[in-house]
Design a protein that fits this description.
With 696 residues, the protein is of the alpha/beta class. β4 and β5 form a beta hairpin.
Length: 696
């Protein structure tokens, strides 16, 4: 921290016997300019501290920590220089060598250095938080480095893939109708934590919880990076967009006990990482180590990180990667009152932030409805899986789909999830994109260099008749219809919907569902020029002799007959897809009508669809598809009339069947009164997507 006389440095190292502070003239300097030794007079409890006069903002520094070797416990490695976990900026990226942080060879010339920066607070007077209620929130998950990069991007070439470049894409985000952007990891991560010959792209390999990632900066001055993040957040706030940050507090880039010594490990790995009595790392993150967030010093560091990003940089909330891992105590025991989340909820400066978490970890812990924190919304993975299964046409998928469309009461104690507690989604950074979900039966991950072993084998995907890119109109038209069905199901279901960047323009990763593992190349840029709404095939630009690309708006308007081999999905497609994807449909009527149709489909068409006989399936598709519900206006009017009649099923809170069948008690969402307002933001977003030809 900068003082009137210089800079005060402080470090937590409970087991250390001696500490050296090394000051460098520049981030790439091979040797320190000055070495300051800290002895017991510089120690207060577990904290080592010293004020160095005559220096200030811009000073580059690192630590060397000495201590006893303790077999089966902590072993210090004073040959390695360590990054300050509280540094707000990092330099030395051009000389950094991860491999030299292994073993006993000194890494002074190839280490990363912290940079002394200001710690000013964000100017909320100039750019107040939008503070959208959960009821109106639509989240859009995006990757800062990939969202604005690539041919056709409306962002200027020198700003693509940067914090400032994202500002130029704000009009596009506003046009989509989303209220909140969720940035995939932007805290500094190690790009070299990857197999040989590859770089870590997605950022789930944290090196610092305080410093923004350098690769998204415009220019290379480490003192400018925090201001560029502030500029992005300011522009978003002034445009009415909230900014959430995906944070990885469950593990670090140091791996297991055989990994490099970069920061936390060299200070006190027994403090920061869960280990057994032999010193073996306990891993529920799948990345070699697990952060012990139940311990006071670790909690304090995480809370300081959150305050740094929320109060100094202005972000509006956090999404905790594998957040349930942060609720584990000693020996990885799950805690019903995890101290980290108790302290977050008790902190008045963090009280108004949006908090979201994954409710699972790699150790088998999964707590969705009973996530042990009152203010944290959980990703509803059951919604993703059950909606995919329904539109794929799986057996026995109707009832669970109805539950998801009603707010997952079967998962939340018999009542729909309280707003803000269930984050509904179909795709995310890990797994298939939406376009690939309807284009591939299996993963195609050979480009990742792991012989297709990586990535989930259970994707609930369906290629609709051909694997990958296809020019068969019957296949492409149903794929387009299924995209609308899936998105409509997401946006009209109770809960807080989250969209993945580029799904609105059919972004593809060529069937690769494991790029988020860390080192794949990104797919095409999500942002397209306004004049070009057509997404190229996964293989790249069209080549001579290829069939002409269809205008996605034409696919959106298509209501043609269903290909016979797609009959199972067609029965539902005609109901939800044709009803909702119509320009001009009032949002709350669209929501009510769509829910009525799909609820009726769940009840009425299931018996016929269980019969594998092709002709009966086709008959079911014809009966419940293009006939009764072809007209969006007629469907909405019918739903409105039912709701307006005293004593009707719709007025009583249940939905009538499309062909005389009624919904079972307690399975239909309440769409009357204020409940219809719950659907308005999502329905408006879908309407904008539809009318502008985004969904193709």
């Amino acid at each position: 921290m900068v003082t009137p006389r210089g800079v005060n440095f402080s470090l937590v190292a409970p087991l250390a016997s001696r500490v050296e502070l090394l000051l460098f003239a520049a981030g790439d300097a091979p040797e320190p300019q000055q070495v300051v030794e800290l002895h017991n007079g510089h120690r207060s409890g577990d904290h080592w501290h010293v004020e160095v006069e005559g220096i200030g903002i811009g000073c580059c520094y690192a630590y060397r920590v000495f201590g006893p070797l303790q077999p089966g416990r902590h072993g210090f490695n004073p040959s390695k220089l360590l990054l300050d976990p509280c540094a707000r900026a990092i330099s030395g990226w051009n000389v950094y060598r991860r491999a030299e942080a292994l073993g006993a060879t000194p890494n002074t010339a190839s280490c990363l250095k912290g940079v002394v920066t200001e710690r000013d607070r964000f100017d909320f007077a100039a750019a107040p938080r939008p503070r959208h209620s959960w009821q109106r929130t639509v989240i859009y998950e995006l990757h800062v480095g990939g969202f604005s990069r690539g041919p056709g991007s409306p962002v200027s070439a020198d700003a693509q893939g940067t914090y400032l470049g994202l500002i130029e894409a704000i009009p596009y985000l506003k046009e989509l109708g989303v209220t909140t952007i969720e940035l995939l990891p932007v805290m500094a991560f190690d790009p070299h934590d990857a197999p040989a010959g590859r770089l870590n792209y997605w950022g789930y390999s944290p090196l610092s919880w305080m410093a923004p990632h350098h690769a998204y900066q415009r220019g290379d001055d480490p003192l400018q990076i925090r201001q560029q993040v502030r500029q992005l957040v300011t522009a978003c706030h002034q445009a009415g967009l909230e900014v959430l940050v995906d944070v990885v507090y469950n593990h670090t880039c140091e791996g297991n006990q055989a990994g490099p010594t970069l920061s936390w490990r060299g200070l006190d790995d027994r403090l920061y990482y869960h280990q057994n009595s032999k010193g073996d790392y306990l891993d529920v993150s799948g990345c070699g180590n697990s952060i012990a967030a139940n311990r006071p010093h670790v909690r304090r560091l995480i809370l300081e990180s959150m305050r740094c990003w929320a109060l100094e940089l202005g972000v509006d909330g956090f999404r905790f990667d594998l957040g349930i891992a942060l609720t584990r105590g000693e020996e990885l025991a799950p805690l019903d009152a995890p101290p980290l989340f108790e302290e977050i909820e008790a902190d008045p400066e963090l009280a108004d932030l949006k908090l979201v978490s994954e409710p699972w970890d790699c150790g088998g812990l999964y707590r969705l409805a009973d996530f042990p924190a009152r203010r944290v919304g959980a990703w509803n993975g059951r919604f993703r899986d059950d909606v995919r299964r329904f539109w794929k046409g799986d057996e026995k998928s109707c009832w669970t789909f109805g539950q998801r469309l009603a707010g997952s009461p079967d998962l939340f104690g018999g009542k729909p999830a309280v707003l803000g507690r269930s984050i509904t989604f179909l795709t995310a950074h890990d797994g298939f994109t939406l376009a690939d979900l309807v284009s591939y039966n299996g993963k195609h991950n050979l480009a990742n260099g792991e012989d297709n072993r990586d990535g989930d084998n259970h994707n609930n995907s369906w290629n609709h008749g051909a694997e990958g890119p296809c020019s068969d109109p019957a296949v492409t038209e149903l794929r387009a219809r299924q995209l609308r069905n899936l998105l409509a199901s997401l946006l009209l279901s109770p809960g807080v919907p989250m969209l993945l960047m580029g799904d609105e323009v059919r972004r593809s990763q060529g069937g690769n569902n494991a790029l988020a593992a860390g080192w794949g190349r990104p797919g095409p840029a999500a942002v397209r020029a306004a004049a070009d709404r057509t997404a190229p095939p996964p293989g790249g630009a069209a080549q001579p002799g290829d069939p002409p690309q269809r205008d996605p708006r034409a696919a959106l308007r298509s209501t043609g007959p269903h290909p016979p081999r797609m009959a199972r999905a067609a029965a539902g497609a005609a109901g939800l897809g044709q009803l909702v994807a119509q320009p001009g449909l009032e949002p709350e009527r669209g929501a009510a009508g769509a829910a009525a149709v799909v609820r009726a489909e769940c009840v009425s068409r299931a018996p016929a669809l269980r019969d594998p006989d092709r002709e009966r399936a086709l008959a079911a598709a014809d009966r419940y598809g293009p006939g009764r519900w072809r007209s969006a206006a007629g469907a909405a009017a019918a739903a409105e009339r039912e709701r307006a009649q005293p004593g009707s099923a719709a007025a009583a809170g249940s939905q009538p069947g499309a062909a005389g069948g009624g919904a079972a008690d307690g399975q239909a969402p309440d769409l009357s009164g204020g409940a219809a307002e719950r659907f308005r933001p999502a329905a408006q977003s879908f309407s904008r997507l539809s009318q502008k030809g985004r969904i193709c």
